[in-house]
Amino acid sequence: MKSFPSKIRPENKPILIASLFILVILTIGTGYTLxxxxxxxxxxxxxxxxQLQTGSFLGIVAAGMMMVILLGHxxxxxxxxLTAAAMMAASVGGDLALPAGIAVGLAVGLVNxxxxxxxxxxxxxxxxxxxxxxxxxxxxxxxxxxxQDQATPLMRFLAADRLLGVPMAIFVWILVSICIALTLxxxxxxxxxxxxxxxxxxxxxxxxxxxxxxxxxxMVSGVCAALAGVLLAGYSAKAYQGMGLPYLLxxxxxxxxxxTRILGGQxxxxxxxVGVVLIVxxxxxxxxxxxxxxARQIIYGTVIVGMLLVYGRGAKVSS
Length: 319
Prior knowledge:
By secondary structure, the chain is mainly alpha-helical.
């Protein structure tokens, strides 16, 4: 892209583009609300904090999804991993609610990792099958009715309460972000993810235990989805069926918008953060404009296809 200064590194260009889109969305949303309502809620700190609070659930899901996409795989079991973790946490209750929810994520991630790494089943097919199994298990668990279990005080505190005026959910998102960013940039596991994503065969020949890397990445994705589910149940005061369905497509979109190569091996976590903020603000503006849900899904899908055409067709980085 000749319009960009040559000193901008290629991996930073998607981040810059997404950041510019955020400014465009803020400008359009502010102009619309000023013309129609006479106010500009998008510029209000309280409104922005509220949007980031609800966006933190998406941000946590996207953090885990990025780990898998960096390998050139995808995790389509996120919707019902999130839902199952929320339901089990609310069902168990007490001090074991949070550990129970996280355990669901770990178990699902382990199954996904084993299926992809050892059985060599394409991740799209295997994780979609696991998602279907989880859906059946949860329907059987609830008898097909809405769960009556309530979120625990800790779940509500982490998702809905505030500390120093800032929602606790944002602090949880920040903590997850720090862990993911440090893992990718400062640990051998993170370097192994990039190497495996670039070329699994070359990574294996160089001594990397690629099977364990794949399993570990899917377990991180499962834990992130489970944590988001526990928080969402706390925010809603209870778990409900299908609560994870709205998060799959936006999570993939956020990761891709942030410049993570869908074929694996390239991407920065700061890009995923920018992608999440873009999706959250886009959804907020569409809500203000009273855009129907069907139109939102069309926009999300169009965004993903467009970014795949831009970033997904490039050659992988040579190992």
